[in-house]
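Hi, here's the filled form for the chain we discussed.

Project: internal
Contact: R.S.
Residues: 224
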Amino acid sequence: MDTETADVNDVEVDVENLADAEVEVFDDSKSAPADRADVGPLDETEANPVRPYVDLGGVKILPREGLHLRLEVEEGSKRVVAVGLDFAKSTLQIQPFAAPRTTGLWNEIREQISEQIRRQGGTTAEVDGPFGPEVRAEIPVMGGDSGTTRLARFIGVDGPRWFLRGVIAGDATVDPEAAEKIEELFRSVVVVRGTTPMPPRDLIPLNMPKTGPADGGSAATTQV
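And the returned structure, exactly as it came back:
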């Protein structure tokens, strides 16, 4: 597994900045698989402490053969804003956010993501996926030929005092075998919330890996 950094100028669907959207009433219950604490995504208190995770601050990633890891960096602030994982001819972008202890964010954020994509000229559909409700979207390619679109799956899981969002692109949006591999990768993520007080929706800080094995190869920059 190798690690790269990429400057990103625009994160098209920004969870941190969705809080001011005009909404009426949302379901603030937690949205997560019933067996989340056993099969993931895991809180750091639930993870096996002897497994060889790559420590990226707010998340830990379990390395595996063929996995390429990218850190997506905000150009102005140089802040790491997302982790990109290239695997099984697909990409998985993950972002961990602070959340309330007893309520969740995903039920609220899903509709806001869909609305933002529709404003960009895309289409969305909500379906029941392996992690619960997810948003499947067809999004216009910025700067591409007129009518060019890409497929994406927006998944989310509410954990204890955190919310983990994932965006899936590539083969895993259409191929069941690739989807299964990417979904297992998402389950293997460990979220490190920490004890520092944070407002809900604030991005849990991410950083360059402190340690981690590398298996060589290259990774392309993907903005989601």
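Let me know if anything looks off before we file it.
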